[in-house]
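ENTRY TYPE: paired fold submission
RECORD: A
CONTENT: sequence, then structure tokens
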Amino acid sequence: MKNIDSIPTSKIQRASRLVSTGLKVGVNYVKYYGEKIVKTEEQAKEKLNESNATDIYDGLKTMKGSALKVAQMLSMEKNILPRAYVDKFSLSQFSVPPLSPPLVVKTFKKYFKKNPSEVFDTFSTQSINAASIGQVHKATKNGKKLAVKIQYPGIADSISTDLAMVKPIAMKMFNIRGEGSDAYFKEVENKLTEETNYILELEQSNEVSDKCSNIPNLKFPNYYPEYSTKRILTMDWMEGVHLSEFVQQDNSLEDLTKIGQALWDFYMYQLHILRKVHADPHPGNFLVSDKTELIAIDFGCMKEVPDSFYIPYFELAIKENIENPAFFEAKLYELEILRADDNAEEKKFFTTLFHEMLSLFTQPFHEEEFDFSDGIFFDKISALGQKYAKSTELRKMNGNRGSKHFIYMNRTFFGLYNLMHDLKATNIQINNFKNI
């Protein structure tokens, strides 16, 4: 993969890159209208999606930062985005062009005030893994193998302007209206800002690894503050394969379920006991060791879950509560899904929509044991997502629904469910976290 010698950091440079990408997308639409004449609508649309996904991703991957992070977040929306976008944007999870070795040394020295060779016994200037906000290098110190994550230059300072540029796209994609939308985007901006603070990530990593250390078959690296700064994070080098690679191997059902149970226990323990959660559950953040242990390696995105949201949210995971119309309606108001200014049509529509969604989505919580390899369950989730993504009625209504906390909670559960399904994990003990 070709190295990057520079990253656009100024507002003008990054805006110009997006404009250039937009022009390519415009050309793709011209081709699309022409191809509709000689091809079927489905064939022409598929080609359009592939071309747009490629051009958008190619533009974002050289910008890195929050613009690329948004693509990473969208790659988890398997039930909303066309397949071409999901496949292309998924590359942002752990496979993007890295910084060139000279730029790596320059960036390290800027953040640490020393060259890597002055800090570590050995340091590989070629990255092992490059993602949206930073890239990882292998190093050694006193015989210990280390992973050194270096943040891309200028990324922390470009978050606000990046989000302002991608905001119109996101609003259209998720049917968010201008009025009242600022709270949602501020939530995303705050989380992205936190992700660029590696001192905070180090603290969060130590806290979670300490409190979750008793979960079976789950491991964490140690972190080293003496070799870390606000833009550099050093931890143990953990041997293993990414979760996405692991599920492609010829694994036994026992091993798949073992990893699935560890992953499920990890998330349930965080949510119900710690009341905060690792809100970035994509395959690039997890490894599997040769001992079939799950390794969690990234805690930049942690979401605190306040009681005001946690209580009604999980009360609606109980089947009897969903089936109680008065109770269900009251909780929808608490979660800001229904609003005092709703007319009769809006109230009926959103009550029906969320009843249908929650009745399906909370099924794992209605059982003591659940089979995440169940294709029918995931086909229903996909069909429901497609149904409302194409709903003309939904687009006519005010789409700003729900507490701002839904953004990362929904992201967490969609990501977790997708990982569990990829693992084809069966016989998962839903409430096993209570025994830890």
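RECORD: B
CONTENT: sequence, then structure tokens
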Amino acid sequence: MVKINSSAGENRWQSLLATPPAIHKKGYYMHQHGYIGRKMRLPKLQDKPAIIVAAFGSSSRGQAAMDAVEAQLTETFADYQIYWAYTSEIIRRKRGLPSLLETLAKVESDGYRKAVVQPLHVFPGTEYQQVKETSLYFPGLRVVMGETLCHRWDFIEDVLAEVSGDFLTGAGEINLLALHGTPLAADPVNMVYMGIGHLVSGMYDNVYAATVEGIPHIESIASQIRKDHARTPFSRIRLIPVMLLAGIHVEDDLMGEKGSWRTRFEAMGMEVDCPTITCGTQEYFKGLAFRKECIQFFCQRLQRALDIMKHY
């Protein structure tokens, strides 16, 4: 019978356990892909949630407005780490910007287990729903979604109050709110677009609302304006974008040289303009991102989401 020296074996293992886990004198290494190895390489977990701003993005002229939004968010939420994500695949390819999935993965790898995602969408349409679905089911992160600029009817009234500062108010002068709209008939956000048209017609005597894509359709609204114009002639109409960035939709669809809203109303004998703003040495059409009060509204949506996160 062979006798095993159990005490010697126990002493050897006790010696190994007492040695720091990185390296042992006799060549015992902790495997870098083992469970303990992975745990030791993980970054320290962050106490505060990360902030992820989800934007459509801009490829050129709209960047000046986006810079203003970023500056205000950075100042207001200086105690938080702010990440950016971009929902437009075209803009991501052009500028090498991260998608929402890439940014969520970056946030998780940086040691965050909580994040607030604040979309820079004006209305809660299909794209907002896509951002929400991507964010809420991302593994490893507990996410709270911020609301859109016009997520509630009182929010819409606040935005209208801000925009109304640019309304024409003289005799024979009217205003037309230009909403983005959606081509999807089944999108629930169509109710919001229709509701805004009904809301402004009741609140103001000289304000209409139409969308670039969807309803209220510009054809039907232009027909209504033509009928009203026949009864009480209008001399001037102002096209006011209710869009975050007054980019190609405003430059081409609203104020373009051919087949635009401007040429449509000029054919009725009206003078047409669109609010502008000077930033640096350049003049831009005035989207919501150039309105400081609207940026503050986004800050309020984000702060509310951060307050909710305190309970999770």
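NOTES ON RECORD B: The beta strands are 50-55, 82-86, 114-119, 142-145, 173-179, 207-211, 236-241, 271-273, 276-279, 282-285. Residues 23-28 have pLDDT under 50 and may be disordered.
STATUS: closed
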